[in-house]
Fold each of these.
Amino acid sequence: MSNIKNDLLLRVLSGEKTERVPVWMMRQAGRYLPDYIKLKEKYSFFERCQTPELATQITLQPIDQIGVDAAIIFSDILVIPQAMGLEVQMLEGKGPLLPDPIKTATDLNRLIIPNVDETLGYVFDALRLTKKELNGRVPLIGFAGAPWTILCYMVQGKGSKTFDEAKAFCYTQPELAHRLLQMITDTTIQYLKGQANAGADVIQVFDSWGGLLGPNDFENFSLQYIRQIITSLKETVPTIIFAKGAWHSLDHMAATGAQGLGIDWCITPQMARQIAGPNVTLQGNFDPAKLLSPIPVIIKEVHAMLDAFGGNHHIANLGHGILPNVPVDHARAFVDAVKEWKLNLNTA
Ligand code: CP3
């Protein structure tokens, strides 16, 4: 039994049928909310991440203002390369830059497997403070990047559509790539155990670039490391894997024991269910760009999505992060449309 008042998300992840479908939005903290944009003028990105009071404040904004059924801690997946000893800059309007990316064995030898309490204790502090401020209103989601997605940034040094240099690194120096992936995995396991210990009720692993790999390479360079992470958390906290574009491997992802699997909008809920099997909870999959449609269209499309998932073993979400230019009332319309859908059923 949890002492969380709105524990829909936790109950759905444990396989229960619930009175309505829970809803949250990837990247809901930050990006599009006016109060967040005001904070950006005063504090740098990593100041916002590293100051527990700021991270907590940002984490709570969508709970208070949008009414989502879960909070996700404000942080970033790139705190892991930082803790391992790589410099990470966040350039306004441009995204991340890692000026000294990993290309050779010598570069790899510069990296450490850090003591997470020393290097990432600020995330644990932020989780503890957020937990306190939430006061049991909704569950708190912790997260990390999947090792493959982290490798993409560590090797490419910046965002990319193809991550060609990261892939070339894996294909030409597989032994080095696996050494790096294992170091990231070992760090991430300690980090996520720390997050659970600090109060995270659910952990999501973001493999944003999993879909750049074919099925065999996805197993080899991504899923075998995600599996280690899920296995190590199994006794501690429920987990969700979001591997964007890697729908071909939903069955293998379900077999890791993760309670939830995120899907993007390029697969139908029916197809995803067919591949993933009957038991796992599916999360998704509204096209984030559709939140730019007029509100009546959003409502209609959200209801169609919920119909397709069928109302059980489902967490309503977007198929990737919310876009920075989404009007706040459109985000709210998305959440409200999910909440009222069950009402429609009840009165039918
Ligand atoms: O869900 C949340 O809002 C919690 C906070 C969160 C951030 N990043 C804050 C952030 C989460 C869950 C992330 C995850 C993340 N970070 C991912 C995986 C999810 C995804 O969208 O694919 C990735 C790939 C990153 C790396 C990253 N961080 C990029 C590519 C960028 C720049 C472009 C962008 O996405 O906005 C960031 C910066 C970042 N991380 C911002 C925020 C709110 C925007 C910068 C700012 O507000 O100053």
Amino acid sequence: MSAIYDRVALIGLGLIASSMFWASKRRSLAGEVTGFARSAETRETARRIGLCDRVCESAAEAVEGADLVVLCVPVGAMASVAAEIGPFLKPGATVTDVGSVKRDVIENVCVHLPDNVHFIPGHPLAGTEHSGPDSGFAELFDNRWCLLVPVEGSDRDALAQLRAFWEGLGSNVEEMDADHHDLVLAVTSHAPHLIAYTMVGVADDLRRVTDSEVIKYSAAGFRDFTRIAASDPTMWRDVFLTNKDATLEILGRFTEELFALQRAIRTGDGDHLHDYFTRTRAIRRGIIEAGQDTDAPDFGRVKQPK
Ligand code: NAP
């Protein structure tokens, strides 16, 4: 594939940025990729593992002359990074981000960007519970969705170029309105993460009583919660603080359903439970049919020796 951008700058060098770099290298999607991370330690690691063609000592230096700038920092840090790079952006450049929340990013980033650049927010729906510069891998975005969230007056050519870039990284791309994005993600990602954090917290309290049985017998259900609850604390703090309304709305509905299930258990209403679980099982089938997860038993995990 030929390069889609001559120069790409990645600001923030964690899981998403490093995966973008390796995926971009795989298909030569960029002439040169520069990168910047705020800590010297991350910049050092990046240089050591060959992450980015050039690791810069400031965000301003990294974005200079870049045709595409990707903000890959936690949602709460997007505005300050935008303010830092604003004066150094190349006229006509495209600025995008990968943040998990979109309305908040749009409101806080736009104000720091000059009128002569294109701002097109984005969100790759792909990730793992790992973070940092050495956690990325080229296949992260393969066959995963990337949502682009154009703002009012977004340039169609700049949008088409960004779409081609994400498709080159392996993603399927769709456009979505910011508020709808935040609601959909509250259902599919944000509320489930909060529930996993809570369940693991509860089990941790219990562990003090049952003397490590929770860990010892940690089987499928709980183990999957612990994987999700190992996700980066800063990233997830920012997600909940910035997608407050949609997350609270979904948690409200979740609590109502939980009460209904609690009542069904208390009153012995097996039909209610059976109907509910039949419906949810069909949703799982739908996800597998859409190619978004594996049908392998235990998510394809290698069998542990007994
Ligand atoms: P990550 O691995 O934790 O990396 C975050 C990067 O941002 C690091 O380079 C870090 O710098 C930098 N950073 C952190 N706080 C900062 C601040 N206050 N100012 C400037 N830089 C700061 O994170 P990630 O998983 O790649 O996530 C990056 C973005 O992608 C987030 O907005 C997240 O919502 C979004 N996202 C994540 C996932 C996922 O599953 N992880 C999926 C889709 C989208 P240092 O290394 O120097 O500390």
